[in-house]
User: Fold this.
Amino acid sequence: MTALPPFERHRPGTVEEATGLFDRLGSDAVAYVGGSELFLLFKFGFADYPHVVDLKGIDELRGIARSDGMLRIGAAETHRAIERHPEVRDGWPAFAAMERGVGNLRVRTQGSIGGNLCFADPHSDPATFLLAADGEVEARRGGGDVRRIPIGELISGPFENTLGQGELLTAVVVPALAPGAAIVHRKFVLHERPAITVTCHLRVEDEELADVRLAVGSAGVRAVRGEEAEDVLTGASVAELDEPLDRAGELAGEASDPVEDANGSVEYKRQLVKVLSGRAVRDAVAEARDLT
Ligand SMILES: Cc1cc2nc3c(=O)[nH]c(=O)nc-3n(C[C@H](O)[C@H](O)[C@H](O)COP(=O)(O)OP(=O)(O)OC[C@H]3O[C@@H](n4cnc5c(N)ncnc54)[C@H](O)[C@@H]3O)c2cc1C
Assistant:
C-alpha cells in the first residue's frame, strides 16, 4: 500500500453545486464522504481520480429525524452518529443495534450510511437490514426532484449502484414497524467484514407467523429477499416451528446464491445462512410475542 496520489478536493455546499462539478469534470471526479472505501482504493492503486468531491458540507445530506412516522437519515451521517442518536435508539432500536455492529469504532466514526450503500460492497449490514425493513433511499441530481428508490433497486450488483451520473444519494428512509411487528438482525463475522448477514421482520398473529420478510446478504454478490423461505414461514405455527424453519433455512441458503471466497465454500455459506436464519426467525418470534 502506498501514499494517496495527488488530487484536488472540492467542497460543494449544495446538491446543485456538486452536480455542476460532476458535469464540468466528468469522469475525472468522484464523490466521497468518509473516504473509508474510496481512499483505500486510491492507496492500493485501484482507482485514481484527479478531483474528489467532498459531500460532507451539503446540508441536504445531513440530519437524522422522524418524519411522517418514518426515520429519515441524511446520507452523509456516520454509522456512529446513527447508533447514538436518541430518535433512532428510542424508535428504531434494532436499526441502532445493527449500526452498532458495523466494523469497528474507527470505521463507524468515519464511514457514512450513504457511502456504505453506494459502494455496494456485498458484505453490508445496512443493505440487508433495509431490505427486510422495506427501506428506501432518496436521490437527487442538480435542481431535479427527489427520486425515491426502494433499497432493492439501488444496488444492482457487487460494487454497482443504479444512481445516474452526478446523482447523489441524499437520504435513507426507514419505515416504522407496524404494531406487533419485530425485526431482528444477525451476522456472522470471520474476518473484518461480515461473512453472512440475515434480517428477519415478522408479526405473530393468533400464534402464527405473518408479514414475514427475510433478507440474506454478504454470502453472495448482493443482499436478497428469501421469498420462498418467507412463503414457507408465513402461517407457520409458533408451536411447530422446527420443520418450517429447517426448510426455510435451506431455501434462504439457496436464495443467497453464495460465492466461494475467503469466508468459505458455497456449501459452507448455505449452512451458515440456514443456521443464522433460524436464529433470526426464532429471536424475532420471541420479540413479537413479547409485544402482544
Ligand atoms: C475495516 C472495515 C470493516 C468494515 N466492516 C463493516 C461491517 O461490519 N459491516 C458493514 O456494513 N460495513 C463494513 N465496512 C464498510 C463501511 O461501512 C463503509 O466503508 C463505510 O460506510 C463507507 O462510507 P464512506 O462515507 O467512508 O464511503 P466513501 O469511501 O466516502 O464512499 C464510498 C463510495 O460511495 C460513493 N458515495 C458516497 N456517498 C455518496 C452519496 N451520498 N451519493 C453518491 N455516491 C456516494 C463514493 O463515490 C464512493 O464510490 C467496513 C469497512 C472497513 C474499512
